[in-house]
Specification:
single chain; binds zinc ion; mainly alpha; 176 residues; 57% helix
């Protein structure tokens, strides 16, 4: 399961892709900066991290890590900023990206995976793909820091280029 850094990057990518199309793309650094400064990118990054708040009430990888929760998050965003369909879509899909990344990532705490299809079923789903390293919370173990630094580095190396391409596409092709 990725760290909050990986989840925020995933949500930000969703925000870039879902951004409203406006005429007049800008080139170069200013275009990239404008693309990344979009409120939808910020909303996506936040929504990408939020499912892990379930640590607070001790039900990690359960109800919040599901498509049902993603739909609920989109509805909440819709009610909060009524009529902003792109915001609701960004929040919902960024939430889905969290579920997807955790499904694709590594997990070392049974039951493995996420309750992806809740509330239809409370079964856990795990892709056994190990795309992302598991973030260790066992801070008392040797190598805790080194492992997590390596995990975050690989997330940035994988998702950073995708974010850059999405920002470039947003700035040059779709316009910001
Ligand atoms: Zn998670």
């Amino acid at each position: 399961m990725p760290s909050p850094v990986g989840h925020a990057l995933g949500g930000a990518i969703v925000g870039l892709v879902a951004g409203a199309r406006q005429p007049g793309g800008r080139r170069g650094f200013n275009g990239l900066r404008a693309a990344l400064a979009s409120p939808l990118v910020a909303a996506g990054a936040v929504a990408g991290v939020l499912p892990d708040l379930d640590f607070l009430w001790g039900r990690h990888n359960m109800e919040t890590h599901s498509l049902g929760a993603a739909v609920a998050a989109g509805v909440v965003a819709w009610l909060w900023r009524r009529g902003q369909g792109r915001l609701a879509l960004t929040v919902g899909l960024a939430w889905v990206s969290h579920v997807l990344f955790d499904w694709l990532g590594s997990d070392d705490t049974p039951p493995l995976g996420v309750m992806a299809l809740w509330p239809a079923t409370s079964a856990f789903y795990f892709a056994h793909a190990y795309v992302f390293e598991a973030i260790s919370r066992r801070y008392w173990l040797d190598g805790f820091l080194a492992h997590n630094l390596w995990a975050v580095t690989t997330e940035v190396l994988m998702l950073g280029p995708v974010l850059a391409v999405a920002a470039w596409w947003r700035a040059r092709v779709a316009g910001v």
